[in-house]
Amino acid sequence: MKKRFYITTPIYYPSAKLHIGHAYCTTLTDIFARSKRERGYECYFLTGADEHGLKIEKNAEAAGVTPQAFVDNIVEGFYKLWDLLKISNDDFIRTTQTRHTETVQKIFTRMLNKGDIYLGKYEGWYCRYCESFWTDTQAGPDKVCPDCGRPVQKAEEEAYFFKTSKYVDSLMKFFDENPKFLIPESRKNEMINTFIKPGLDDLCVSRTSFSWGIPVVENPKHVVYVWLDALTNYITALGYDSKDDSLFKKYWEDEETEIIHILGADITRFHAIYWPMFLESLGIRKPDREFVHGLLMMKDSKMSKSKGNVVDPYPLVEKYGVDAVRYYLAREVNFGSDGSFSPEQFVERINVDLANAYGNLLNRTVSMINKYFQGTIPAYQGQKTDFDGSLESMIELTIDSYEKAMDDLKITEALTYVNELVNRANKYIDETTPWVLAKDSEKVDELASVMNHLSRALFVASRLYHPVLVTASDKAFTQLGLSEEKALYENVHDKHLLDNLTVNKGEPLFPRLDPVVEVPFINELMSGNK
Ligand SMILES: [Zn+2]
Q1: Which residues pair with 432 in a beta bridge?
Q2: How many whole angstroms from 203 Cα to the centroid of ligand 1?
Q3: How far is the CA of 131 from the centre of ligand 1 (A)?
Q4: Cβ-contact 232, 278 below 8 angstroms
Q5: 403 C-alpha vs ligand 1 centroid, how far in Å?
Q6: Ligand 1 ion: nearby residues, β-carbon < 5 Å
Q7: Which structural domain range is residue 347 located in?
Q8: How far away, in angstroms, is 219 Cα from ligand 1 center?
Q9: What is the whole-number distance in angstroms between the Cα of residue 52 and the centre of ligand 1?
């Protein structure tokens, strides 16, 4: 495994407010970044906003503001949401920032001089009313403008193109040599069979039909068009080809850094095909992994405003807390597969996993330590019973499986291991029956051992939950009497960690939710009435 990590989310388009799908991708990326840092690795985490394009130009015009003012306002909301969700990104790149626009112009010039970009003609379906070009697919079988519904005409405009044909062979070789580049692997075959084999067209990288973009220095009536502008954010943010490129050297050029892009299926083609080509054209290395997550749907249909099933993450976090929402997103929808959000599942997950299993285990354990040992966790004294031995092996196994799953970005799977440990610890209480041991003075050592083992299981579970349950885990550490230093990840294997600590009984971590009240409330949120 490499010694440090650079992980990115896609940059989101600020034409409207973010919805829970964006929150999903960013939260899962955050969980990975946090888990790496907690385990002692350096991890640089980037997210941002993709701020150019016709749609923004038009939305700004409709709102009667400049495009810059328009995106400034929406991006303010991005900051607020990431703050609310406790996203730990190290940087936030905006494609309107000078650090980005200047470098994109240099990149364009370099590719132009190299002959990888040439001036040609773009042919598409043109709506004269909206002054926009649409592709065949966008215009649909009726050849109408997807925005205004008016008929569109075939038209041409002058445009620059990136010569994809030059890089197809080396891309195929790269795919062959790096079978783990694109995850899930099925995506690779999709790329090859759907896009590469039928013949890849050169990619249009400039437009003259709108002006909200980065001007091409050599021909300023053109602005750089979407993907060359957007994808390069991953290197411009690190200071590629700028005065201070120390982050670029450390987090991109150095082979000891693992570069991971997290993305949604709808943009796989651009990340898996064009991005490696751009990088090869620039003579810099390609990412190690591109992880394509699934679609977060609403009750089995795609999110859409017209269906009234878009969940605004803000009120959800405000009402249920950051931990509950982060947990639900990570646990309910298997990272890498499609999944759906439903109010019933949301309430049930919180109740079953967090309130009943984890919160209750902490509550019971701290109460018993107060009752039987005046609030002091008894010291570790080896394995008094087979039950102790079995719980100890389960703890070690859980840490091991969790780390392996996290390393592979199997975040949902990693969480299920922690859930299993919590369930095992709850079962251990039933097996050891502390309330029976407490009645027998000869069993006091056995009872002490049970309390020590339960406390350690709780520490390990809380530590492993921490990248997800960013506030509740800290509360659990406090209840177990663990200082910040003692609660560090490096102590997960220490059997004596909990010896003689003083517990502090606190509020339940996750109060049980009443489905009769909460399900209708979330439904209201989804219909946009709240
Ligand atoms: Zn139109």
Answers
A1: none
A2: 24
A3: 7
A4: yes
A5: 51
A6: 127, 129-130, 145, 147-148, 150
A7: 343-491
A8: 27
A9: 19
The domain tally of the chain equals 2
The pair of structure tokens assigned to 378 is 């008894």
Looking up residue 182, the CATH number of its domain turns out to be 3.40.50.620
Give the C-alpha separation, 217 to 181, whole Å: 34
The values of phi and psi at residue 219, to 5°, are -160, 75
Helix (H, G, I), strand (E, B) or coil at 23: helix
Model confidence at 39, pLDDT cuts 50, 70, 90, reads very high
Residue count (the chain): 530
**Average pLDDT of span 87-101:** 98
Q: Is residue 255 assigned to a domain? A: yes
* pLDDT of 449 strictly over 60: yes
Residue 188 has pLDDT above 60, yes or no: yes
How much distance in Å is there from the Cα of 234 to the middle of ligand 1?
A: 33
**Distance from the alpha carbon of residue 154 to the mean position of ligand 1, in angstroms:** 13
Give the C-alpha distances (Å, rounded to integers) separating 482 from 148, 452, 463: 61, 13, 11
Percent of the chain with pLDDT strictly greater than 70: 97
What pLDDT sits at residue 199? 87
Report if residue 450 sits inside a domain. yes
184 cis-preceded (ω within 30 degrees of 0): yes
Report the separation in Å between the CA atom of 120 and the middle of ligand 1, taken as the mean of its atom positions.
Answer: 25
In a domain, 330, yes or no: no
